[in-house]
Amino acid sequence: MYLSVRNATKTFGMFTALDKVSIDIERGEFVCLLGPSGCGKTTLLRLIAGLSDLDGGEIMVEGEALSSLPARKRGFGIVFQSYSLFPNMTVAENIGYGLKIRGTPMAEVTRRVSDLLDLVKLPRAADAFPGQLSGGQQQRIALARAIAVDPRVLLLDEPLSALDAKVRAELRGEIRHVQRSLGIPTLMVTHDQEEALALADRIICMNHGVVVQVGTPEDLYHRPATRFVADFMGISNLVPTEVVRRGCHKLLATRPVGSDAAYIACIRPEQIGLIPAEDGEATVCNISFLGNLRRLEVDSPLGMLVVETHGGNPFREGDRVRLSIEPEACTWVADDIAGPSA
After folding, report:
1. Sign of the torsion angle spanned by Cα atoms 133, 135, 140, 146
2. What is the per-residue pLDDT across 54-73, written as a single tens digit (0 to 9) for each?
3. Which domains, and CATH codes, for the chain?
4. In what order do the strands lie in the sheet with 263-267?
């Protein structure tokens, strides 16, 4: 592994922010730390960056221990939510700042700045000041500044959360393009599931200071391990075993062995089919138009379900329908509801 964290522990007084967390990042990989506010993801990023000290554990890059190295000597690039650009410097001066303080010849700094402005698609912005740019443009400059010094690892701390939805979507693509072009190992903190699904090679999902699941976006969405992950990764219909037994017994075919309290059914909205039927066991209660899809709330023997349909929608509120759910569409997850609330 290129970057390894082993048993990272961090406490603040009586509060344990990180409890023996271990993660790995491979060379060239884009990894997202995903979880709700307060789960420990930003604390972990700051420990890796050297902006905070470990209480226990170790951080290594290519086998080199970093715990005793200050942030400035770790060779990492960092992009924050707040941009953190120097307002009295031009865009070119901001991007070239790290190179300049390292004593890089001016001709090389100028060339590097020009190349990076092309890479982040702001080729004419060199002489502008940060205050003259939009939020999305400022974040592109912050990204260019972070990668100007050829960092060993790129660390992104919720870099898109201050931007509006359209700019966020555009900049997601730019960040992924830049990361793939340069092959920099990248670790990004986010609480946005869509962002993590769109960007990551792997997602590390955290809750209450521990890692609860690691996998590809497809793994965490289609094969969540726990109720928390299933509920956090997009919309899920979560149905207790006893309700499944009464309302749709055939779904039990894929259930692992265990008590009724051990597992809960997870059914994604797009995996439920609806068939119009006057004698159907379910009723359409609400329909929301969301552009490329419609989201329906359906009162059924499995409880109130969320169903998503694409294209035409033949249903109206009050329609009776039958449910069509294949056993393979049902994922059984560990019911961790008895633990601390997510």
Report:
1. positive
2. 999 999 999 999 988 999 89
3. 3-222 (3.40.50.300), 236-334 (2.40.50.140)
4. 237-240, 263-267, 330-334
How many Cβ atoms sit within 10 Å of the Cβ of residue 301?
14
- Is residue 92 helix, strand or coil? helix
pLDDT digits (tens, 9 = 90+) for 158-207: 999 888 888 898 899 889 999 999 999 999 999 999 999 999 999 999 99
What is the C-alpha separation between 220 and 204, in angstroms, rounded? 9
Q: How many CA within 13 A on the CB side of residue 64?
A: 10
Q: Are 172 and 204 in contact (CB under 8 A)?
A: no
Partners of 112 in beta bridges: none
Cβ–Cβ under 8 Å, residues 160 and 138: no
Report how far residue 42's alpha carbon sits from residue 265's, in angstroms, rounded to the nearest whole number.
31
Q: Nearest Cα to 114, choosing from 154, 152, 148? A: 148
Virtual CA dihedral for 333, 335, 341, 342, nearest 10 degrees? Answer: 0
- Quickly list DSSP for 265-328: EEE-GGG-EEEE-TT-SEEEEEEEE-SSEEEEEEEETTEEEEEEEES-----TT-EEEEE--GG
First to last CA, the chain: 31
